[in-house]
Amino acid sequence: MQYEAVIGLEVHVQIKTRSKMYTRVAMEYGREPNTLTDPVVLGFPGVLPVMNKTGLDLIIKTGLMLGCKIADQCKWDRKNYFYPDSTKNYQISQYDQPICEGGYVEIELPGKSRNVMGKHKKVALTRIHLEEDLGKLTHFSTDSLIDFNRAGASLMEIVSEPDMQSADEAFAFLTSLRQSMIYAGISDCDMEKGQMRCDANISIRPEGEARLGTKVELKNLNSISGVRNGIDYEIRRQITLMNDREPIVQETRRWDADSGVSVSMRSKEMAHDYRYFPDPDLMPVQVDREWREQLGEELPEAPFDKQRRFMTDYDLPYTITSVLVPDRTLSEYFEKAISANPTKAQAIGNWITNDLLRELSDSGRSLEDCLIHPEHIVGLVEQVESGAISSNIAKEVFAEMFTTGESAEAIVDRKGLKQSTDVDELAQWCKEAIEANPGSVTDFKSGNEKAINALKGKVMKESKGKANPRIVDEVMRRLLEDV
After folding, report:
1. Residues 367, 451 within the same domain
2. Are residues 32 and 48 in the same domain?
3. Same domain, 136 and 172
4. What's residue 476's pLDDT?
5. Percent of the chain, pLDDT > 70?
6. 52 in Cβ contact with 19 (< 8 Å)
7. Distance CA 176, CA 170 (A)
């Protein structure tokens, strides 16, 4: 029997606020354990939480960006459970009135090759709700330690519909979601810092079956690639159980990335196990149209929308847009460059995605530290297009631009790199090449068209790359007719 997987993701994203969700305590990473706490974070008797408006702004922005319906009113609930990472034995969350409902995440699946755009799909969302983060447990062989620095951080949970069928789709979902969060300044989504965490709900069913199978929740997925690996394993595990006629148990399993297997943790809790009830210390929030519209105006263009625009408006190939668009800073650098000369968009894109990124990587610099301004790229392209310098010389000029921050024109003038278009001078170099290479001349005259390249190469070497290749070709062919 053939089976298909049904996958839904629950993604926790730490919102980029300076302070925690219900207190003024700073939200930072890397501080000494248990130094970012106060009576509110630790749940002392008599303390009262105060709402962080930036946290509300950013989750509303997320909902608008992902096409969600923003609730006119949302309330806050206490999710009760007893675990060492919870100082209060409850978590402030949202149950039946989340702030965002519906929406979708657009994903791109792998293409036939890296140079071909893959199929796009919209993965439906169930809801996005706001809550506070919990502490972090670090386990050792005989004991565990708790750090409450993360407790109380602004956190949103993005819940997808069971709308994915493969680990690749889940990988694409997280990649796209992370990119959108970073684009809009909502979160840095650094999974190593716990700023983005994911649980996967996985079930299988016979192909064509409408009814969902028994769901297993997979936790401890600490990287986007780990999510893909964990889901792949869990699908295979469940198919093996079905083929062996063994039952699949609804449970929570932990992914062990080192051994590449999942292990059972506990039976899956249901909503009633958490005994939700409205938080008595926090008032419901009204979200009016003016607030929504103001936040919507602050959103950047969505990444896939920008990619489609680049391909349509500037006739850029997928190979360039797939490098430019994922990095908002890089795509904005490109747009500043082409604003001076939109007709050279592809040449500008090639220099940025190939040469500039290579130099930045080799030097360990960021784009913000780069000495090459966007207009310098345009100037270099125009030097090549006008015939002032050759493509080979342009590589030398670019390296000098990266080191000094000078314009291409200034470097060409200072180093005397402008191509020679003096026909008499080029003719002399061509004659010398013909006299010194009779074999290549004979081959060309015998019909070997490629033999002329050896002759032109001699001219380029003699001129130290400054001879204009187009004029060299014309002069060389004319002289060869008389040989």
Report:
1. no
2. yes
3. yes
4. 86
5. 98
6. yes
7. 10
Shared-domain flag, residues 144 and 217? yes
Long-range contacts of 272-279 (CB under 8 A, 24+ apart): 273/81, 274/79, 274/80, 274/81, 275/80, 276/77, 276/78, 276/79, 276/80, 276/93, 276/95, 276/96, 277/77, 277/78, 278/75, 278/76, 278/77, 278/78, 279/49, 279/75, 279/76, 279/77, 279/78, 279/92
- What does the pLDDT look like over 393-430, one tens digit per residue? 899 999 999 999 999 999 998 988 776 666 777 788 88
Range of the domain at 445: 423-481
Rounded CA separation 316/99 (Å): 38
Give pTM, 2 decimals.
0.87
pLDDT grade for 268, boundaries at 50, 70 and 90: low
Please enumerate in sequence order all residues whose Cβ is within 8 A of that of 15, keeping only pairs 6 or more positions apart, or say none.
54, 55, 58, 59, 153, 154, 155, 156, 186, 187
Residue 377 has a CB neighbour count (10 Å cut-off) of 29
Are residues 314 and 277 part of one domain? no
For residue 463, give the CATH number of its domain.
1.10.10.410
- What's the domain count of the chain? 3
**Pair (9, 154) in one structural domain:** yes
Separation between Cα atoms, residue 408 and residue 412, nearest integer Å: 6
Rounded distance between C-alpha atoms, residue 406 and residue 386, angstroms: 19
Of 415, 432, 463, the residue that ends a domain is: 415
